[in-house]
Structure to design on (678 residues):
């Protein structure tokens, strides 16, 4: 795999244009490029870089510039460079406007008569004149947005020189694109040199395009036959987007592309640029699902889609600069995907190292192109090389993945045949093992039965003892509870009554838990108005929360009905409210609420602002005699019997009960009940 990548890099290196080592390359100074010491046969093509004359908001011809009577405002500007930010008369100009570029090229006597100008990319309307002759016209150059019709220039212009100098004038107007002016180099050379270079470049680009397009068709077709694996679909779409981008960018010099609408070409290029990172994320989500983070969809994918939509609905003058800001999203996407791959390598996912090698080249080359197009560094476009290396690594990964799947299938088939051949012998041995295990299990079962009988005897004794104590205490407590009603009210009597009420409540819970723990609770269910039951439970526990000045809120809809046993559900609310009051400090708040869930059950919640329940205690909160330690008071209070009864009662109604809490932040008890039929 690494040898393939090295081979591609070597080809890419030798396909680039080279200058003779040690040769001083002339650059334009003050609008003049001196090539009298330049031999095109030996030295090759030359970039017309350097200082060009620049006439802002002036569309001039050779006659205009050479006319001494005409007053012109001349500036100097570096080429290649976007004119945005150029300071004229103390003010920086923006990308929208019009201007004239001029460069005079001095030739020697041995210079060839026939030249070629290789204009790589002028993404706006332009007219190119050489020695006063119009040699190229793309779009319509104008002084206003309405007059200007944008057009691309990416072509070779042949010109026969009859003098020892070339007077090059380029009129440019831009009211649509985010880049303006001569942002890319123009090359000058012999006709044969430029054509050979263009033919070589065309061949390389066509090879890349064909290879990528074939991969796209292959993997999309593979998905059609095996739709369970979406990674091949995403990879095929990724290749298709890259092939489309390459076609409209790399091969834009084709004749029929010149006739396409400017907006159509630019939008296609930007659509593919916005969508291919989105497809990359979906691809990595498919091959490394455990390393993928859900938030990436919201933070990275949705913005990409939003940029594509804005490109569709906004005019190009507004939408084209969006690509500048999208570069930052691309960098974030690639950083995130690098994180995913590294995480996959740490978890030893198959093929992750191969993907990292190809992805690293893609990341570095795209980062190079971002800096290059932002005019931060001097380089060249390496996007297609990086993409091709990455696609090769992806193809290698997917091929290895499919090969592993086929090898595994063959291995399993071979193992299955071996198992079938030895099946009879294995069955005999297995029957013997099962017979021996059966004897051992029988002996263990007998031992467990004996132990279980002893445990049942102990458990029956315990239950009988609890039942006896509860039964004997119930009647005296009833008498104590009734006594205060026959006497005159007083604080002491009320205290006795409350204590007796709590004891009666505890004993009743104890009896019911013992009664229904091992048998089905018989219900007398009817349609009930839920808020009436809650109100009754609140009245029964009024003496508890009024003392502590606790605010108790009933938020239940008055029309909400349930199908339940009134007495039992009323006791469930009494238990939950009593428990909430017990652990809620003075001036606290208890809220009772209910709603209809998606499963058609009524979900009730009792929320307090008390001391909360620790995570360890939550696991046993509905067990008998479970303890919650009230840290504030330093005392322990039993809550197990009441909550144990609540669990039995709710489950008898085919509902569920659970609790959620954080220490010192209160607790909320939830349970569900069947809704009454309408």
């Amino acid at each position: 795999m690494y040898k393939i990548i090295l081979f591609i890099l070597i080809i890419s290196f030798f396909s680039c244009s080279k200058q003779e080592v040690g040769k001083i390359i002339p650059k334009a100074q003050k609008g003049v490029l001196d090539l009298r010491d330049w031999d095109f046969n030996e030295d090759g093509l030359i970039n017309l870089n350097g200082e060009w004359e620049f006439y802002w908001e002036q569309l001039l011809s050779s006659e205009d510039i050479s006319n001494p009577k005409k007053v012109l405002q001349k500036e100097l500007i570096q080429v290649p460079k976007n004119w945005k930010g150029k300071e004229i008369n103390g003010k920086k100009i923006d990308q929208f406007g019009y201007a004239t570029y001029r460069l005079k090229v001095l030739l020697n006597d041995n210079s060839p008569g026939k030249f070629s100008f290789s204009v790589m990319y002028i993404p706006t309307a332009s007219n190119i004149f050489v020695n006063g002759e119009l040699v190229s016209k793309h779009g319509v150059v104008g002084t206003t947005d309405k007059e200007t019709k944008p057009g691309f220039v990416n072509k070779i212009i042949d010109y026969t020189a009859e003098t020892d100098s070339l007077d090059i004038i380029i009129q440019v107007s831009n009211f649509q694109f985010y880049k303006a002016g001569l942002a890319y180099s123009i090359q000058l050379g012999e006709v044969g040199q430029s054509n050979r270079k263009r033919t070589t470049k065309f061949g390389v680009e066509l090879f890349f395009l064909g290879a990528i397009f074939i991969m796209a068709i292959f993997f999309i077709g593979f998905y059609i036959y095996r739709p369970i694996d979406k990674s091949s679909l995403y990879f095929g779409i990724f290749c298709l987007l890259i092939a489309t981008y390459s076609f409209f960018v790399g091969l834009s010099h084709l004749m029929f592309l010149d006739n396409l609408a400017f907006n159509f070409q630019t939008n296609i290029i930007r659509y593919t640029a916005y969508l291919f990172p989105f497809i990359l994320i979906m691809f990595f989500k498919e091959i490394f699902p455990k390393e993928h983070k859900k938030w990436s969809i919201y933070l990275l994918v949705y913005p990409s889609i939003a940029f594509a939509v804005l490109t569709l609905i906004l005019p190009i003058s507004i939408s084209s600069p969006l690509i500048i800001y999208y570069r930052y999203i691309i960098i974030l996407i690639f950083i995130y995907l690098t994180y995913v791959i590294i995480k996959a390598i740490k978890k030893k996912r198959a093929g992750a190292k191969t993907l990292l090698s190809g992805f690293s080249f893609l990341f570095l080359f795209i980062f190079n192109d971002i800096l290059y197009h932002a005019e931060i560094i001097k380089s060249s476009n390496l996007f297609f090389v990086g993409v091709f290396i990455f696609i090769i690594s992806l193809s290698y990964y997917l091929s290895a993945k499919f090969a592993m799947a086929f090898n595994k299938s063959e291995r399993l088939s071979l193992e299955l045949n071996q198992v079938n051949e030895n099946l009879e012998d294995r069955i005999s041995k297995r029957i013997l093992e099962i017979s021996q295990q059966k004897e051992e299990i029988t002996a263990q079962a007998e031992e467990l039965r004996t132990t279980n009988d002893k445990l049942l005897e102990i458990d029956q004794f315990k239950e009988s003892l609890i039942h006896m104590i509860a039964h004997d205490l119930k009647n005296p407590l009833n008498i104590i509870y009734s006594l205060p009603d026959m006497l005159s009210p007083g604080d002491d009597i009320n205290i006795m009554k409350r204590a007796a009420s709590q004891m009666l409540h505890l004993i009743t819970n104890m009896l019911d838990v013992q009664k229904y723990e091992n048998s089905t609770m018989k219900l007398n269910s009817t349609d009930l108005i839920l808020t009436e039951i809650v109100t009754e439970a609140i009245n029964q526990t009024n003496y508890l929360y009024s003392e502590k000045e606790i605010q108790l809120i009933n938020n239940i809809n008055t029309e909400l009905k349930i199908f339940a046993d009134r007495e039992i559900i009323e006791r469930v609310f009494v238990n939950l409210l009593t428990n909430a009051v017990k652990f809620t400090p003075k001036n606290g708040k208890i809220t009772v609420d209910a709603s209809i869930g998606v499963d058609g059950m009524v979900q009730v919640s009792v929320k307090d602002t008390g001391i909360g329940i620790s995570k360890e205690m939550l696991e046993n909160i509905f067990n008998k005699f479970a303890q919650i330690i009230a840290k504030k008071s330093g005392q322990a209070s039993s809550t197990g019997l009441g909550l144990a009864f609540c669990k039995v009662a709710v489950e008898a109604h085919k509902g569920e009960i659970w609790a959620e809490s954080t220490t010192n932040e209160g607790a909320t008890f939830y349970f569900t009940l069947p809704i009454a039929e309408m």
Notes: The chain has three domains: 27-197, 229-404, 520-674. The chain is about 55% helix and 20% strand. Confidence is low (pLDDT under 50) at residues 1-21, 627-639. The CA atoms of residues 154 and 253 lie 5 Å apart.
